[in-house]
Amino acid sequence: MRILEAQNAQLTNVEVYTFLNDQAKQYQEQKRRGPNNLESLRGDMIKYFETYPGPLSQKPLPYDTASIPVLLEKLKPYNFTKGECVMVVNLRPTDIVSLNIVLEDMERRFSETQIEEIKGIVIEVLGQFPPEPKDSGDAMDTTENGV
User: Fold this and answer.
1) pLDDT in tens, 20-66
2) What Rg, from alpha-carbon coordinates, does the chain have?
3) How would you write 92-125 as a 3-class SS string?
4) Of 50, 55, 66, the residue nearest 15 (C-alpha)
5) Sign of dihedral through CA atoms 85, 87, 91, 94?
6) Whole-prediction pTM value?
7) Which of 108, 133, 129 is nearest to 119 (CA)?
8) What phi and psi values does residue 68 have, to the nearest 5 degrees?
9) What is the torsional sign of CA 73, 75, 79, 81?
């Protein structure tokens, strides 16, 4: 095997998720299975992407691969690096704390107004992050009560 173009592009989580789901549907339509390790890896990756609090855990998905160019165009005036753009799409930061993790030197590079604008763009294009699901019982309560 020969590598023709090493690291030609970076993929976001939504692009990988879409590819894996499309590939699984294609295999089902052809009534065939891929190698066992491929099926196992695909299943594990899809489960990982769909686990809360991941941005892809929301059903139906609030955004798809077509949203990425729209987001990048709206964020262009802020001069994000390629890595920052990928992290924004992957993590969908909808609050200032999350944005601070994604954007290097956020306080120095952007004013308060710009930070609010960036947050608004992310929410507008990628959607608001869903609230945490409520569990029916808390494991700590059960342990503390001796039940």
Assistant:
1) 999 889 888 888 877 888 889 999 999 999 998 888 888 888 888 89
2) 19
3) CCCCHHHHHHHCCCHHHHCCHHHHHHHHHHHHHH
4) 66
5) negative
6) 0.77
7) 129
8) -65, -50
9) negative
